[in-house]
Specification:
The protein has about 290 residues and is α+β, with helices and mostly antiparallel strands. It folds into 2 domains: about 10-45 and about 260-289; about 50-245. It is about 60% helix and about 10% strand. The protein has 10 helices and 6 strands, in the order ααβααααββαββααβα. β4 and β5 form a beta hairpin. α8 (about 170-210) runs antiparallel to α9 (about 215-235). The longest helix has about 40 residues, at about 170-210.
Length: about 290
């Protein structure tokens, strides 16, 4: 006679698990419902955070004076003129300026964002910091803004930069994102115009002092190029950041966080685990009696 085939241990485990679930369905369901409700309360009590994104392309603001490098490289360097095709470096410089602490601090101060960033410490009715709290410094404001509010990512393959503002006020988030790009571009434009003006003044002085016709002609070419660059800086709509897609105000329901369905799902899962532990403990106590 053939021997009876014993059930596989895995089958026994699944059967035992199924019997355990059926036997303690009331306990398990109770904990799932309770923890799901608690998770739902938590999810709906959290303040929605909205994400506003502005997509930009760092514009090439390099001088491009390659033909004069060999003639007046040292003089041009003294004048502060970029001779090479430094488009990549200019783009990196613009991006680092956007991230810089100085620009961020100036932005926060210009728009009076300290009371907004530290709203719990600010007494809006009196228009001053609450008594007994440590008044936050601008350095703390910059750190909070850089870590929690502003996010900058760059696609190294395409050079496209995406800057995001995550904030509870969807209108303010879009405004801050657009203002940051606009004001950074204007600051870089003003700095470039100032540098070019100093370079032109320096080259004019050198042209008056030099007796060489050849060097004088080269200086004239440098001045001509710098004047063109200054004109571009003054007239071009986007100097360092060309906006591809400006930030828009998100719909009220289109929030970035919290992920309420996920929180409720995790709460239900946690309730199932807790319920299983409680049910297993009760079952062991019954078996020991």
């Amino acid at each position: 006679m053939s021997e009876a085939v014993e059930p596989h241990r895995g089958d026994l485990s699944l059967i035992a698990m199924w019997r355990f679930l059926v036997r303690h369905i009331v306990i398990l369901a109770s904990f799932v419902v309770i923890f799901s409700m608690l998770a739902a309360l938590l999810a709906f009590s959290l303040k929605p955070m909205y994400r506003a994104e502005v997509v930009v392309w760092p514009a090439d603001s390099s001088s491009g004076l390659g033909g004069l490098t060999s003639q007046l490289g040292g003089l041009a360097s003294l004048a502060g003129i970029n001779l090479g095709g430094g488009g990549g470096k200019k783009s990196d410089e613009a991006l680092e300026f956007l991230r810089s602490r100085n620009f961020t601090a100036a932005f926060i101060e210009r728009h009076a964002l300290m009371p907004v960033l530290f709203a719990k410490k600010w007494d809006s009715s009196r228009g001053r910091w609450r008594e007994g709290v440590d008044i936050p410094t601008i350095a703390e404001g910059v750190a909070r803004f850089s870590k929690r509010v502003r996010q900058i990512s760059e696609d190294r393959r395409t050079g496209v930069v995406t800057m995001s503002i995550v904030w509870g006020d969807r209108v303010a988030a879009a405004q801050w994102a657009n203002w940051l790009i606009s004001e950074a571009d204007q600051a870089l434009r003003d700095r470039a115009i100032s540098e070019q003006s100093r370079s032109i003044d320096y080259l004019k002085a050198e042209a008056e002092r030099t007796p060489s016709v050849e060097i004088g002609n080269a200086i004239s070419k440098l001045m001509e190029t710098e004047l063109k660059n200054a004109m571009v800086a003054r007239t071009r709509d986007a100097y360092s950041f060309k906006v591809i897609d400006p930030a828009l105000v998100r719909d009220q329901k289109d929030y970035d966080s919290p992920n309420r369905p996920l929180i409720v799902f995790l709460g239900a899962g946690f309730g199932l685990v807790v319920g299983a532990i409680v049910a297993a403990t009760r079952q062991r106590r019954v078996e020991r009696r």
